[in-house]
Specification:
This protein has helices at residues 31-39, 83-98, 114-124, 140-146, 168-176, 208-216, 262-277, 293-304, 325-337, 356-370, 376-389, 427-440; strands at 6-9, 20-24, 57-63, 66-72, 101-107, 130-135, 156-159, 197-202, 234-240, 243-249, 280-286, 308-314, 345-347, 402-408, 414-419, 449-454. It is built from 12 helices and 16 strands. Strand 9 and strand 10 form a beta hairpin.
Length: 455
């Protein structure tokens, strides 16, 4: 008691590895089809009717080992008085401001329109790099027509077909060429080791800023009952009882259909980028509301990004309790998070400072778990014994034999199992292998990647 934490505003450059690409253009040029193509999944709704995309879509793409965020925006109409198109216009401008790279999509079948020229005029005022993507170029005749788009005055032009994927490789090669190795100064301890970075994430009004203030014992951030008070990420250097790390307080992430204010859309993008920067994400869940679909969505996004995760059930002081209230709440919570349920759950009250330091201790443990490396000899000794007890099912009449396993040197704990028939190892058996890894080695709170490779 009475020990005050060391606190300072960071005076060094914070690395921001979350490279963000925005897809913009007038309605019905194929932006959402391109978005789905880059993600290699059908996430955005696609229709021949213009104006289908009104809310922003977010996704994570991977190309040649480089990851980047993608934002799909609605169709830009310059002077429309339609209430939806006015809102979309504001959101497109924000996406342009926040993105690192812009993909300007046009349609070769219609040629250059006035709306294309309006969009090009907006983009020429931006300092961000712009790649002009002429879509629906799926034959030589359309490729000839597409050459007229050079007249828009943008240096880098790519012809492609989002539906077939033709030309997508060349576009992606150009996109990832802009992703440079991080040269920013990283916060380090006295020995020069990088400090762990913990992002406080969650829906608006879950108590993120209250938690930060309770941890540092100062009014570092504004706290109110108005959802969305925090507009930007705030970095705080924290040191107490020999523990040292960087806390990142983010704006609340809420369902996109509820994001109306311009500043709040900025906050959504920056909160997603804060996840990229963090080693461990502390997801605050409002105990009064229980776990919601949006909480699950935030959890899944952090897991896909390979971040360590600690669940903090906040406002636990406001819940009427019986003998097994915490146990039942945790079970209900993990049932909704399946299949990734090996995550620590701490019941806290940021307002009363109940168990908040236990939450920090758990975040440090998860950070260590994320950096855990298991020697190849120990892996093979333990995992091959488990595989022998419960071998992989036969496939097409062949016995699947796994003879070797090793940990892959990546930021996210990843393991390669070498088999004679790798295609025969299906998802249920991969889940079995992951569960056995978790039962023998402590990877609590950390997503895991399982790869099956040819022996």
């Amino acid at each position: 008691m009475g020990v005050k934490p060391y606190l300072c505003t960071l005076n060094f450059s914070i690395s921001m590895p979350g490279f963000t690409v925005a897809i913009v253009g007038r309605p019905n040029v194929g932006k959402s089809t391109l978005f789905n193509r880059l993600l290699e999944q059908r996430k955005a709704i696609v229709d021949d009717q213009s104006g289908v995309t009104r809310d922003r879509q977010y996704g994570i793409a991977d190309w040649n080992g480089k990851n980047f965020n993608i934002i799909d925006t609605g169709g830009f109409v310059a002077d429309s008085e339609d209430v939806f198109e006015k809102e979309i216009r504001k959101q497109v401008r924000i996406a342009i401001d926040e993105a690192d790279l812009i993909l300007f999509v046009c349609d070769t079948t219609t040629g250059i329109t006035l709306q294309d020229e309006d969009m090009a005029a907006v983009l020429r005022k931006s300092t961000k790099p712009v790649l002009l993507v002429v879509n629906k170029v799926d034959n030589s005749e359309r490729a000839l027509y597409a050459t007229e788009f050079y007249s828009l005055g943008l240096d880098k032009v790519f012809f492609m077909s989002s539906i077939s994927g033709s030309g997508s490789g060349e576009l992606l090669d150009e996109v990832v060429s802009y992703i440079k190795e991080d040269e920013a100064t990283v916060a380090t301890d006295k020995e020069g080791n990088p400090l762990p970075k913990f992002a406080i994430i969650g829906q608006p009004n879950a108590g993120k800023s209250t938690l930060l203030n309770a941890l540092i014992n100062q009014e570092r951030t504004i706290v109110s009952d108005i959802a969305g008070t925090t507009r930007d990420t705030i970095h705080t250097h924290y040191k107490l009882f020999g523990k040292e790390f960087v806390l990142i307080d983010t704006a609340g992430i809420r369902k996109k259909k509820n994001v109306h204010e311009d500043l709040e859309f900025y906050s959504v993008i920056r909160a997603i980028r804060a996840m990229d920067e963090a080693d461990v994400c502390m997801l605050l869940i409002d105990a009064k509301n229980g776990i919601t679909a949006q909480d699950v969505s935030i959890f899944s996004l952090a897991a896909r990004k390979g971040k360590g995760i600690v669940l903090l059930v906040n406002k636990w002081d406001l819940v009427e309790k019986e003998t097994n209230t915490a146990r039942d709440f945790e079970k209900q919570l993990k049932d909704k998070l399946e299949p990734f349920t090996d995550v620590p759950v701490i019941f806290v009250s940021a307002k009363d400072k109940t168990r908040i330091f236990q939450g920090m201790e758990k975040a440090l443990e998860v950070y260590e778990n994320r950096n855990r490396r298991v020697t190849t000899s120990v892996l093979n000794e333990i995992m091959l014994r488990e595989i022998e007890r419960y071998p992989a099912p036969m496939t097409r009449g062949y016995s699947v034999k796994i003879k070797f396993v090793q940990q892959v040197p990546t930021a996210v704990p990843s393991f390669a199992f070498f088999a004679n028939h790798p295609d025969g190892v299906k998802e249920p058996y991969k889940n079995f292998l992951e569960n056995k890894l978790r039962s023998h080695f402590n990877f609590s709170g950390v997503p895991m990647r399982i790869f099956i490779r040819k022996k």
